[in-house]
Amino acid sequence: MGSRTTFIMGGKQMAKALYISMLGEGHVNPTLGLVTDLVKRGEQIVYYSSNHFQEKIEQTGAIFRPVDQRAQEILQEISNLINSQPVEFFLQFLHAMEMITDTIQNEITNETYDYLLYDAQTMVGTWIAHQCKLLSIATWTTFAFSNDPHENMTLTDSDDEKGKLERLATLQNFLQLEKIQECKKQLENKYKVPFPGFFLSNPGPVDLNIVFTSSYFQRNSEQFDDNYIFVGPSIPDSSHLGDFPIDELTGKQVIFISMGTIVNQQLELYQKCFTALKDVDGKVVLSIGKNTTMEELGDIPDNFIVRHYVPQIDVLRHTNVFISHCGMNSISESLYFEVPLVMLPIVNDQPMIARRVKELGAGVLLDFENLSSEDIKQAVHEVLENPIYQEKAKKIIQSFHKSGGRQRAADEVFKFTRTITKR
Asked: Strand pairing of 7-9 and 12-14?
């Protein structure tokens, strides 16, 4: 790669940057506002992601490039293995990251960039920043982590000291497995970047961290270094309504159910919701995703609106209670519109996020593995009838607003990249 590409536009220095994020809606969507603001300020952004996000990324004004096609297929194929075959999942995940890194490096060999933005939960950005000697900015679309595994247990849990130590021991034993150690050493030798001890959550050294939540919502945020900037979530103005009958929600009590885009094949849960909420005086909106058919659902109660796709932002504006899987994107959007939650976390960071919402008083947490229709009914009734949940949600949204959002994120990127020189 050549020298810096910074140029002058309208008397201001502009720059060219790479952005790499490809792991799913919850990782890409929060970055789009930041990219839009950077492009409006004159930055040229080349954004590597999955083909699924091409239209969204191009709408920001960035230049879209697809990451390695075979790597995209691998990530799709292993998406359901994280709990049943964690070793195989992790080895295949790292292999996909290696393929993506090598393809991008090959494509940018004769190009020049001033800085690199990347999803904090992949190694790709760390490797490319080191190889190309670029300033690096990691963006966190869930809670941020440090490189200290003991500290991370404090950041993600509250009082269960024994449980923390057990989870830490389990993680350390997992990372010491022979196959994982072999893969780790091979990649360290290839890219000349040592893996940190807790590389499942924090992939390594970075110059600046932009965290898309508030310091209030992030547990123990005061423990982070000054290079972690908490800017709050970036919430789009609207979804694509399509043919959704949004007018049917006006003036009604609304319960919204969505299990996100990854773990939404939940036929048994949906039928429990039918039983629990069929007598609700209002509307129940259910998003079932693209892999569950209406025929599989059977008889749908008259007060339900069921769709494969639901315009989440627009529906949340009308919602009184949100039944959610607790992905960070969904939680941030729900709290942004002061909607308290009934929480059903399943995998990944979802339990950690749900525990934090419960800790701050903005929702009721249920056990997904031992769930009855009556549990759902009682939890919804509790959240609807007790105003404390919405009051606590308001406190979180106030912290979001004070954090500055996408404009603050863009300001911080500008300030950092104009005052710090390349590695």
From this structure: antiparallel
How many residues are present in the chain? 423
pLDDT digits (tens, 9 = 90+) for 350-408: 888 999 999 999 999 999 889 899 999 999 999 999 999 999 999 999 999 999 999 99
CB 195 within 8 A of CB 106: no
| DSSP run (H or E) holding 52 | none
Torsion of CA 280, 282, 285, 286, to 10 degrees: 10
Torsional sign, CA 407, 410, 411, 412: positive
The more confident residue out of 24 and 417 is 417
Alpha helices, DSSP H, located in 65-160: 69-77, 86-107, 124-132, 149-156
Tokens of 191: 């890219």
Residue 14 has pLDDT above 90, yes or no: no
- If we measure between CA atoms, which residue out of 100, 94, 74 comes closest to residue 180? 94
Angle of the 350-359 helix axis to the 328-336 helix axis, nearest 10? 30
Handedness of CA 138, 139, 142, 144 (dihedral sign): positive
Q: Which tokens sit at 264?
A: 């939404």
